[in-house]
## 1
Amino acid sequence: MSNKKQQTKKESSILLGIPDGDIEVDNDAYITKLGGLPVWLEPSKPPSSKVCECRICHNPMYLIFQSYVPLQDSPYHRVLYVWACNRRLCMRKEGSFSVIRSHVVDQAYLKAQRQKEEEKRKKEEKKKAAAAKQQQAFGNGFQLGDLWGNSAGSFGATPTTGGGFGMKKPSTTTAASVVASTPFGAAKKNDTKQDDLIKQMNELGIKDPIDTTNLPQFPGQYLYIDEEKTDNYESMGIDMSRYKEYLDMEKEMLMDIDEGNGETWQGEIYEKQHLPKGVDKQFKKFTERVECAPSQCVRYEFNGQPLFYSALRPKDQQLITSTCKYCNGPRVFEFQLMPNILSILPTTEFAAKESAAVAKPIDAKVKNVDAKTVLDSWNVGMEFGTILVFVCQKDCHQGLIEDVSYMEETALIQYETD
């Protein structure tokens, strides 16, 4: 009994993504990586360029994370992409980050499914022929065909907890073996609501497709996948005094910029943001947990519990509990990106290059200089405390089963002073 308890305590369902070296040839959709260019499951059918366009500055965003994450008992290959704008002025505004979930059916499954449907069709034809023959023998008074019933297939089964994070592309026999136990099907053509959803899907399809040759990119980095180990978690302690000093310094800096320009842009960017009185308990928990593996860039646990960077606000709670806009099913947590990514990807260096038109930082206290110009001159790239990604629990697939699909998912961004 005691051995079982000890084993359960050590086991962890949380997987961590750890940096594992540069990617020399970036052309594999079946890996997990930071940076680089997006690699599509179906290269001939990329998504719309809108999926990686910042909704604030309308510039192309950078891919910061891509992962092949198939779910158990699913016939689909599945990849998640996360984009972010590398312009500091766009941070803390809705539309500066984007998450896309992509599906393409496994060809072995599709072949087996069609073969199964063909066999079923032949059996039904034989039954009808036999029924017609019997009807002729007994006369029109007895409808033997009424004894034969057709049952509808089971569609849209909810996937079980995924274990695909960091997995290599599965063999073709894996998906084919699912046929007997987990049938999947296409949407009904006469379903008006489904047609509307497909229309939404088409907006993310190949209309105005992404041209990857024109996308900005960070150098690609492989991620090594390992289980989280927290054996020494309870014995760890973190000195939070330096974090409090940072909050005070940031508040003073923002006040100086406002006074120097005579404008209050702070109210726009930090709307309803209140600095904590003392230390944020949620942040302390976050920091202590991360200290167990400081180099982690990703935490993955499908249908698991996220590690929040700060306490949830009411609008955050509403966002992550909203239903899937395609199937109206529940959303669940799948993974989160960690702040160590900002030390792995050269966000500051690339932001400085993009702001090269500004010869030198502008003194914020100089008159007649607007706050936007000041911030642009100080552009040091993207920022975040953590990016939490919530996805459709049913892992719904819109359109026909053989269609490649791109579905927008929900990201909650928590920042330093949240």
## 2
Amino acid sequence: MVRSTVRQLVLRPKFLAHQLRCLHTEDKKWQSVATAAATAATQGVCVPAQESLPSMHTFRYSDTIVRLAEPHQLQPKPDAAGLQFGKLFTDHMLKIEYHKRLGGWQKPVITPFENLVLHPAAKVLHYAVELFEGMKAYRGVDGRIRVFRPEMNMDRMNRSAARAGLPTFSGPELIKCLSRLVSIDQEWVPHSESSSLYIRPTFIGIDPSLGIACSESALLYAILSPVGAYFSSGFQPVTLMADPKYTRAFPGGCGDRKMGSNYAPTIHVQREATERGYQQVLWLYGEDEQLTEVGTMNIFLFFINDDGERELVTPNLDGLILPGVTRLSILELTRSWNEFKVSERKITMAEVIKLMNENRLLEMFGAGTACIVSPVASIHYKDITINVPTGSQENPLYYRLERALTSIQYGRVQHPWAVTID
């Protein structure tokens, strides 16, 4: 009781000062805190929470509070065949607040899906203090639900949080919370090997202050969305627009962090590509026109190198490239096959054109959580169109990779990358 009241006192000192003085407790740990807080409250001063309350460096799954939706709040489950990406959401969500003045991380709460209430001065609304992750839960051929390498998403999310001035947390604890959320809404995981349940953990700064500084209050929340294919065309090769005047990221920036501020500036360029008849943007950087990413995906090239051997290459992680979970998985899988050379290095448009002119470019494809693998058919670059023979290969690598990854995700093969949700 005292602990709860002290926490409220930090936020509303004068209103609760008298209430706190009237409390009787045997808890000596909180006795001095209560006395100091009550005294300060009558003087209109807040006791700094970091000095008065135990620091909570992370939340704990064991503290999770669950409030289930009432029967009338439950929605009918959709037909997997008609799912669009990110258009429909499940019955529940996860919310975890952070308040420095209250000691740090608060208890995780699973609640019926609801709108957020934010102060008009919240940092997320003014300075884009926001980051997110993209994960999926898959219903396997055995009926069990699996998530794919969630620890990698947690590591990336913490790196993004540190860059955004947001508090970090225990990845394993959030995985447990997310697993509980998926378990509660498990009927939303499609009974289909062409669909899945998209998991979107999001972290925002909610300080009611216009000052540009680290967030002392934040909200980590997660919502779930059953999804079908990311591209409406399905598993078909896509066309790209490569325009050197547009840049997605730059050295020293946040291109290697999954922040919302990386994506808003790309919307106009994507719209231009669509209006010109192309499906995605191939992002270039620098005077040598380095390939960085394709749309929101990492990019891969498969070709015959100067030594006459097959080689798979993707841009190295130099600060411009998002360290994708699918990207890493493809690199690890292909290296374990030991069938061709696998490289991480700079790729330029000049090299792509040279490979095409010499008939050595075999395939090009994007890779990411949303689409897994997306083959490329052509690139419109300046005044030329580069037709990539990705779809005409007899046994294309992109398709083999897609089958290998989905076999793990849907439980067709047992693999440590697939974490089962009980």
## 3
Amino acid sequence: MKPFSFLTDYRPVFCQSQPQEYQSYIEIAVDVLQVQNQAKLEILKNFLLSLPSLTEIENVLAEAVHHLAQTDPQTYRWIIQHPDYLMPELDLTRLAQQLALSKLKNSPLILGEDFRLTRNGQLRLSDPAKKLLQAETSFKERLLFTEFLQADCLSKS
């Protein structure tokens, strides 16, 4: 089984009947995120409420973050340093945990010994698990993991 990757596999599926409209929302989200301003981001999130569902809002934001991870490392770094700015519409901490768990399950490390999920859903990591996440990932994933490890979102065992 191929490991899940936030930067390549968490690609949203939009209503195919209006792809141009969704592309416009994504482009607006990218432009606003590049300003790197929390107040402007709140205005964007209010604007996105015109979309038919919360899932579609999450998808637009996820696609914008994905685009910036590929094209604008400075803005991408700002986003992952301020994941709470995207909450509750997009939970980057949850996505980072899902990506980390997928990578760890597909590694030689041992579930329950090197990494585990707590009852409240936190991912606890040993030092070897942390090193694996930082060593065997792309630059963008490594940056994502580094920021969340520093913030203790992917917790110590």
